[in-house]
Amino acid sequence: MKEYVSAEQVSDLIRKRIDFLKNTYEGISHHAIEQEGRLEATANNRNNRYYWVHEVKEEGKTVLKREYLRKNNLEVASRIAQKNYEELVKIAIASELKVLKEVECFSDTAEKTYALLPDARKAIVNPGELSRDAYVREWVSKEYVGLGFDKGDNTAFFAKNGIRVRSKSEVLIANALLDCGIPFKYECPIELGRHIKYPDFTVLNVKTRKVFYWEHFGIMDDEGYVNSMMEKYRLYEKRGLVLGKDYIVTFESRSVPLSTQSVENIIKSFLI
Tens of pLDDT along 5-28? Predict the structure, then answer.
């Protein structure tokens, strides 16, 4: 499936673009350049030549003078060129803002077409990839076989929804995801070339439909554990997965445990 871009993402980008353009316009207006005349420029293989065309008084008359600007007077050429450039930018910004403001608050989206159908019609219509709820349901419902737990493993760490995990920190992560309504799978297998790996959490950004793998490395003061972690990290890299783009990582040690703030920051940055 091609990358999904939601209407909310588009609307958010439009608002950010409008803010950027307004700030740029105001910034240009605040330092308006005062320089009379216009600039003529020619270029050849050796150098650029600049001419300043401006009005002067000669014998009581106003005439246009074309003055060659030498290297020690190129500041005039720079001011005129910058002034002309910023005038063109302001025109372009005004034109762009006019278009963006017309679509800033669009309300009719393809996704809403299905959402507004009566329940009886929803029951017999296939929304394809347009329905967020249907997409999430399908993603969550895909069955998988995780790592499981050894019979001798007596640890009992459970998230709010009853899923068993391997540590208190993973309970913290799982509960935070549940509280934020973020779909996830625990230790769902993925193929990395000839290897099968089980990321701690496979999570779905509902807005963008982007899947992230969330690894929590919880014994950073154990050298053997760190080496194992680095091997997993390098395997991700070899398969083209990029940290911060395809997978996210949290760390802790015995003396520095995972904090709620760290988990919340990850969720806000990547999953909401």
Answer: 888 888 889 999 999 999 999 999
Domain 143-270 has CATH 3.40.1350: yes
Summarised one tens digit per residue, pLDDT across range 143-188 is: 999 988 888 777 889 999 999 999 999 999 999 999 999 999 999 9
Q: What whole-number distance in Å separates Cα of residue 272 and Cα of residue 264?
A: 10
Distance CA(62)–CA(22), nearest Å, equals 39
pLDDT digits (tens, 9 = 90+) for 40-95: 888 876 788 899 988 888 778 888 889 898 888 888 888 888 888 999 999 999 99
State both tokens at 219. 């014994």
* Closest to 197 in 3D by CA, of 246, 254, 264: 246
Distances (CA, A) of 26 to 29, 36, 85, 89, 228: 5, 22, 15, 12, 53
Q: Please state the domain extents for the chain.
A: 7-103, 143-270
The kind and range of the H/E element at 40 are strand 38-43
271 vs 177: CA distance, rounded Å: 9
Q: Which amino acid is residue 143, in one-letter code? A: E
Q: Which amino acid is at 38?
A: R
Q: Which residues pair with 54 in a beta bridge?
A: 65
Q: Are 142 and 189 in contact (CB under 8 A)?
A: no
Inter-residue contact 202 to 188 (CB < 8 Å): yes
Half-sphere exposure of 143 (CA within 13 A, CB side): 0
